[in-house]
Amino acid sequence: MSSIPEDLHYTKEHEWIGGVDDGLTLTVGITAYAAEALGDVVYVQVPEVGASIATGDAVGEVESTKSVSDIFAPVTGEVVEVNQAVVDDPSLVNSDSYGDGWLFRVRLEGSADDLLSPEEYTALTSGES
Amino acid sequence: MSRPTPLRGVHESLGATLTDFAGWLMPLRYGSESAEHNAVRQAAGLFDLSHMGEIFVTGPQAAEALDHALVGHLSALVPGRARYTMIVDAGGGVLDDLIVYRLAPEEFMVVANASNYPRVAAELTERAKEFDAAVRDRSEEYALVAIQGPRSVEILSTLTDADLDGLGYYAGLPAVVAGHEALVARTGYTGEDGFELFVAASAAEPLWAALTEAGAPHGLVPAGLSARDTLRLEAGMPLYGNELSADLTPFDAGLGRVVRFDKPGDFVGRAALEPLRDVPPARRLVGLVGHGRRVPRHGYPVVVADDGTVVGEVTSGAPSQTLGRPIAMAYVDSGLSSGLAVDIRGSREPVEVVELPFYRRKK
């Protein structure tokens, strides 16, 4: 199992959120734990730039050989950028979950509440495995 | 609690993702399932199939008992050969699809699916009652390891003196492989050349190790159930529970050729199946190829692209490594072959109807 980066936040739906401590634009991706559980990712659907999303909304999907999962908005805000590279090459979710496999960026409206710390996410995933 | 196979320790040491399948703890994949799929198409893959059931039918009337119990003509099978067949209920519904090996004139091995073999063993026992034949479920004693892919012959030939070149498709012979007694069968579920090795449960680990070592220079990799499923789907092979069920007859599944009305005597399901032999079924099993990347999956509705009218249902679907597009098998109203789509979670994705299989190996 790959290690869980210390500088990110997480959700129970196995998403990672970068930039929470730095500013208003947050980066969202899928954790390596989730990518491993999904298997080879073959299709990624991300929200459109300009879309308003609210915490908990299903805003996209990730499809692997064996299954399909929703992507849930981890925060409320406006989508300002999407990763076209991962749409074109979904295997980036597997090969570089916390880097080139990022999914979209969102400009935060309000605050980023109820996110998990790296310690909490570690505890969550070690309980599941 | 899922039951482990004799190879559980091996799978764990290889870092496999394990999953429950039909009550068994099985390797889903060891690394990338796409890489495992491609290895089987291009080199070779090693599978643990010990969850399958092995039921032996023996005795002076073993052949007659199977002619009565199954839809196939097993008394016509030559010792050393195997046949794909089915067991149906009195109404003609498919209880399981099977491979039957005739090991000797009075000895048959019936290989049944993991989810069905207790039922199959019970049905065979009941149906063989009137015959001088014994039915014994020996699934617990056996492990089943398959080596599949174009390099299989080369790899296996380094471990056995058996005449593999003389072993035709759907034939089996007893042989010693890496020092272990095995039934070596040229059968599989991947659309490639390959072998299935039935061995004593205790021989599974050393046999796996020997095959792994002999296969390494040839590109052999362990392959899990995920790759097995996409391989068989590309090859257009039905999976019980998806394309086959007790609600469908062999004719519904387009497999009426396995029902042998020309064999001697009555057989279970004959009366129900006979009137169906010349009746075109309302729905037909077809292949679908998608244009985008979203995958039609088991249970998704097949619809008319223009108006969304439901005209069928997907039974299996996956992204195809070989075609580079999503593929699926589906039951679709007979006569419809264009203008179709699959309702993928609310959006209509156009699909092309194609004849099965999606993939056929070059001889």
TrEMBL record, chain A:
Its cofactor is (R)-lipoate. Binds 1 lipoyl cofactor covalently. Belongs to the GcvH family. This is Glycine cleavage system H protein. Keywords: Lipoyl. Pfam families: GCV_H. PROSITE patterns: BIOTINYL_LIPOYL (PS50968), LIPOYL (PS00189). It comes from the Bacteria. The glycine cleavage system is composed of four proteins: P, T, L and H. The modification N6-lipoyllysine is found at residue 66. Residues 25-107 form the Lipoyl-binding domain. CDD domains: GCS_H. The glycine cleavage system catalyzes the degradation of glycine. The H protein shuttles the methylamine group of glycine from the P protein to the T protein. Transmembrane segments: none annotated. Coiled coil: none annotated. NCBIfam families: gcvH (TIGR00527), PRK01202.1 (NF002270). The lineage of its organism: Bacteria, Bacillati, Actinomycetota, Actinomycetes, Streptosporangiales. InterPro entries: 2-oxoA_DH_lipoyl-BS (IPR003016), Biotin_lipoyl (IPR000089), GCV_H (IPR002930), GCV_H/Fam206 (IPR033753), GCV_H_sub (IPR017453), Single_hybrid_motif (IPR011053).
